[in-house]
Structure formats: structure tokens, C-alpha cells
Automatic annotation (TrEMBL):
This is glucarate dehydratase. It holds the Pfam family MR_MLE_C. PANTHER family: D-GALACTONATE DEHYDRATASE-RELATED, GLUCARATE DEHYDRATASE. It comes from Kribbella lupini. It catalyses: D-glucarate = 5-dehydro-4-deoxy-D-glucarate + H2O. Pathway: Carbohydrate acid metabolism; D-glucarate degradation; 2,5-dioxopentanoate from D-glucarate: step 1/2. Transmembrane segments: none annotated. It is an enzyme of class 4 (lyase). InterPro entries: DgoD-like, Enolase-like_C_sf, Enolase-like_N, Enolase_C-like, Mandelate_racemase_C. Residues 133-236 form the Mandelate racemase/muconate lactonizing enzyme C-terminal domain. Its EC number is 4.2.1.40. SUPFAM superfamilies: Enolase C-terminal domain-like, Enolase N-terminal domain-like.
Length: 349
């Protein structure tokens, strides 16, 4: 097979710097999310002059030097050994470069190459900036101007930062204000487990006319509470999205099979491309790999969506990545189109 004729000759380490367009504030469980950050990438060089690179998705094994690319990745399934998960993205990129195929084609090309993206950066601006709810609306306006047509609002202010009743009231006020300002946009809400089931159902009753697209991580995963929430949502189109933080996979798959989770969210990088390739055929609902943290993760999740299908929307992390040419990805009116270039179609300067 073609990949067997290419041998890893050198493993190079580097970093990339992500920059958000503004400081991203608190959510229900964590303080400020800052302005971006520096992350490790790994670059694989072959004896045949091919290069593949990607975010380091875990510890990077050096002992791949001298091994053939065909031993390390099977284009049909992903990396061949658990110890290679740190190289998941670099190896998919490298296989694509060698085979002259985009990653979404390696993954099966089961989805559309144009994917709706939602804005994942609407945090608790009202708690840090002057102007209260208007501060949140200002962030929505900035991201709308940047092309977003769907907002995910962080809620759960009463979990840690405000008195419970006042925080819940502010969540309702923010949700209603964004809906009023953007009658046609999709609105998603993410509580980062900052409610209990009773409190969350009260929140939902207060925003019942806001046509929420999905509710994410409303409370700590619990099969009975999720069944209760699903029952409450009967007759509405609102989806339940779960499974981002510390996913306990098998119970989540079971809850999804019972119909009480509509969208599974395991992280695109820490859960990984190869794991998603294994799991996607087993899940009874839709999926949307969590991408928060790095604009690059949105591009990876979009490739996964185009490749594996079954992903209705992808989390957008607004911002830029220094030294990475992302211009082959097209962004228009809330949709991202992945390129038909080999690998991820991303050049590292
Ligand atoms: O869905 C999301 O984007 C998140 O929940 C991101 C969180 O806000 C962030 O604190 C994190 O990554 O845990």
C-alpha cells in the first residue's frame, strides 16, 4: 500500500498561538477564559519529503522514527495503536498529503462539506463589563458582524457567581434579550452543569417562547434527570446536547439509545478523531464534537462533520491562529466550507 513506502524520518515539535477577538469571560463553573493561548503541535517528516502536522492530542511518542506511515495509520480507521493518539491529527494530515486526499474524504465523505457553525464565545460579559445585559448583546453584535448566525449563550450564573435566584433571573433576561435582538438566529444555551433538574426546568419554562435550538450540559449527567428533561421538552424541537466534560461513554451511549440525549459532544481533540471514527457508527443520535478553546479545533470538527456525517452544526471558536494559513476554508453567512486540499488543507508557517 502507498503509505507503506513512506517512513517517518523526523518528529518536530512546535507551538501555535490562538487569539480570540476579545477577552472571553466566565461560565457557570470557571473564571475568565482569557484571550487565547499557546498549544503544542507536532510535525512529521518522511524520508520521501512529505510532511503532516497537527495539534498534539496527547503525549507524542518519539519511537515512530523509522516506522512506515502505513504501520501507524490505517486510512480506513485511524491510528493503529492507542499509544499513537497524540499523533492522531498529524498522522491524518500526513496520510492525506501522501494519498492526495482531504481528511474529510479519508473519513468517508459522508457529510456536507459546508457546515453551519455556531458562535461558542458568548460568555458572562455582563459580570465583567459595564452595561449588564447590553455587554452580552455587544458581543453578539460583534460576532454577528463577523458572520455568525447562531449563538450559544452561557447560562448558570447562579451556580457560582451570583445569588441563585438573581443569577437564574439574569440567565432568563439574557436569553430573552438575545432572542428579541436576533429573531432569526439559532440560539443554543450551555449551563456547564450549573443547574439542577428542577431549576433548569424552571429556566426553560421562563424562556419557552425563545425557540432554543439546543440545551447543553444543563446539570450533572444523570439518566433519570435527562429522561425528565426530555419529557418536559416533548412537543418542542429543542435538542439535548451532552457528553463534553469527562464523558463516561458507555452510559452516555445508552442514554442516547433511550432517546434522552439528542447530540453527543465528546471533544474533537481530547476524545480524538480515531475515537470518533470508532464511535460514530455506534451512536443512536447526532453528534457535534466539542471544539472550544482553539479556532483550529473548529476546522478539525468541520472536517470530521464533512467526513463522518451526522453532525448538524459545529462549535465556532472566533479568532485567529498565528502562523497557520487557514485561507482555504471558506466562511460565509454562518457556514464554513472545508477545502478539497490534501490533509487538513492547513499550512504551518
Ligand atoms: O461547550 C463549550 O464550549 C464549553 O463548555 C467550554 C467551556 O466553557 C470551557 O470552560 C471548557 O472548555 O471547559
Amino acid at each position: 500500500m502507498t503509505l507503506d513506502r513512506h517512513f517517518v524520518h523526523r518528529v518536530e515539535h512546535s507551538t501555535i498561538q490562538s487569539r480570540y477577538p476579545r477577552t472571553v469571560g466566565r461560565n457557570a463553573r470557571l473564571g475568565s477564559h482569557g484571550n487565547g493561548g499557546v498549544d503544542d503541535v507536532v510535525i512529521l517528516h518522511t524520508d520521501t519529503g512529505k510532511t503532516g502536522w497537527g495539534l498534539a492530542a496527547g503525549p507524542v511518542p518519539e519511537e515512530v522514527v523509522g516506522r512506515s506511515v502505513g504501520e501507524l495509520i490505517d486510512p480506513a480507521t485511524g491510528v493503529t495503536e492507542p499509544g499513537l493518539r497524540g499523533l492522531d491529527f498529524a498522522l491524518h494530515d500526513l496520510a492525506g498529503q501522501i494519498l492526495d486526499l482531504p481528511v474529510h474524504a479519508l473519513l468517508g465523505g459522508r457529510g456536507s462539506t459546508t457546515i453551519p457553525i455556531y458562535d461558542g464565545a458568548i460568555y458572562f460579559a455582563d459580570l465583567d463589563d459595564a452595561g449588564g445585559v447590553d455587554a452580552v448583546l455587544a458581543h453578539c453584535a460583534a460576532d454577528d458582524a463577523a458572520g455568525y448566525r447562531a449563538f450559544k449563550l452561557k447560562i448558570g450564573r447562579g451556580n457560582r457567581w451570583m445569588d441563585r435566584a438573581a443569577g437564574d433571573a439574569r440567565d432568563i433576561e439574557v436569553t430573552r434579550a438575545v432572542r428579541a435582538a436576533y429573531p432569526k438566529h439559532r440560539i443554543l444555551v450551555d449551563a456547564n452543569d450549573g443547574y439542577d433538574c428542577d431549576g433548569f426546568i424552571e429556566y426553560l419554562e421562563a424562556v419557552a417562547d425563545c425557540d432554543l435550538y439546543w440545551v447543553e450540559e444543563p446539570f450533572l449527567d444523570d439518566a433519570d434527570d435527562l429522561a425528565r428533561l426530555k419529557k418536559h421538552l416533548q412537543g418542542s424541537q429543542t435538542l439535548i446536547a451532552e457528553g463534553e466534560s469527562n464523558p463516561d461513554l458507555e452510559p452516555l451511549l445508552e442514554i442516547a439509545a433511550n432517546g434522552d440525549i439528542d447530540v453527543l459532544l465528546m471533544d474533537v481533540v481530547s476524545f480524538g478523531l480515531t475515537s470518533w471514527r470508532e464511535v460514530m457508527p455506534r451512536i443512536a443520535c447526532q453528534a457535534s464534537p466539542h471544539a472550544w478553546g482553539l479556532p483550529l479545533k473548529t476546522l478539525y470538527a468541520a472536517q470530521l462533520a464533512a467526513g463522518l456525517g451526522n453532525v448538524p452544526t459545529v462549535e465556532g471558536v472566533p479568532g485567529t491562529t498565528d502562523g497557520v494559513d487557514t485561507s482555504a476554508y471558506r466562511w460565509a453567512d454562518g457556514n464554513l466550507t472545508v477545502p478539497d486540499r490534501p490533509g487538513f488543507g492547513l499550512t504551518l508557517a
